[in-house]
Amino acid sequence: MISVAEARARITSALIPVSTEIVSVAQAAGRVLAEDVHAAMTQPPAAVSAMDGYAVRAADLEALPASLTVVGAAPAGAAFDGTLGSGQAVRIFTGGPVPEGANTIVIQEDVTTQGACIVVSAAVPAGTYVRPSGLDFGAGDLGIVAGTRLGAREIGLAAAMNRPWLHVRRRPRVALLATGDEIVRPGEPVGRNQIVSSNTLALAALLSANGAEPIDLGIALDNRDSLLAMAAGAAGTDLLITMGGASVGDHDLVQSVLGERGLEIDFWRIAMRPGKPLMFGTLGAVPMLGLPGNPVSSLVCGLIFVLPALQALLGLPAAGPRTEPARLGRDLAANDRREDYLRATLSDSLAMADSPAMANVEGHAVATPFETQDSSMLSLLARAGCLVIRPPQAPAARAGDPIDMIRLAPGLMGY
Predict the structure, then answer these.
(1) Tens digit of pLDDT for each residue in 374-405?
(2) What is the distance of C-alpha 373 from the center of its chain?
(3) Domain 324-407: homologous superfamily in CATH
(4) What's the pTM value of the predicted model, to 2 decimals?
(5) Angle at Cα 27 formed by Cα 26 and Cα 30, nearest 5°?
């Protein structure tokens, strides 16, 4: 068995980023930028007012109170075309261009009006409430670097830079193939010796939420012809993920049957719980990741291995999930040679202050592993706030001891 870190490194190093495409900025949210974005214009293109008020010359306010004649207006989207002279003012609104000759803004709250004139009683230094040309960015400035996953802030900036089209990585196409006579789709008749399959739908949700296009190949029966026929649907995809059939039982056919079609195994089995029977290789030109069939094992491996693989395909740094420090909420026995990922509840340490074991624990959340960690219990994963990581051969731990955890995002599991 190889370590989790080695397995992840071997998977991600074997993957090549997918090609690029051009999409509308309106459709680019969540996509990974493939080329730097530079501003196509200067923002603001000219000096504009930051407030509603009056554009004036600061020199006219040296003797107060100052009476100025209003000679025009500069609303947003329009401009005062003349040049402001001595003793004059222009009514201006937020975003309105500052007229030639003006160099400061008096806000309307500091002005009293007297017919066609205003009276200013407060000193206003030059440059007050004036946004100079290029304050935000200038034409040609680098705004967003390649490799950025585009969120609301980046979409807004690209739009402001007048970049209506963006080069992004296309969505990796990931084929999902469940295996086993014992599983059926949700809503189908469930036989006496069958269960409902959740893995494909769970992994498809995980992939969609993280920028991929999942392709459901269906459920292959535990026979050679069914597996070969359904696996053929992965041709041309960027990654094939199988679920189940990767162990050593008589009906675990993935290795033997797909070996007939050129499956080359890089590694099989890792020192991890849940998720020991993990397999990685290539089926022709398609990288293949074989996940365990147990639903918790499948999803935890999705977090630890599938998401980094997806990052590699998108040209992102293929790091593992982020870890955070926490305190253990209950005692744990010594670990064996496998790295454990324990489903756990997550709570504020202050809520544990009445527990004697936690009385002196401060500054970290408390992660309390469930007593039962059976890899078939998907309900516990749905309730978990985090995964507690226990290294191989970790000694026995007491409540309050420091540990590392992976926080599980609400709703869809991700990081």
Answers:
(1) 998 999 999 999 999 999 999 999 999 999 99
(2) 28
(3) MoeA, C-terminal, domain IV (2.40.340.10)
(4) 0.87
(5) 115
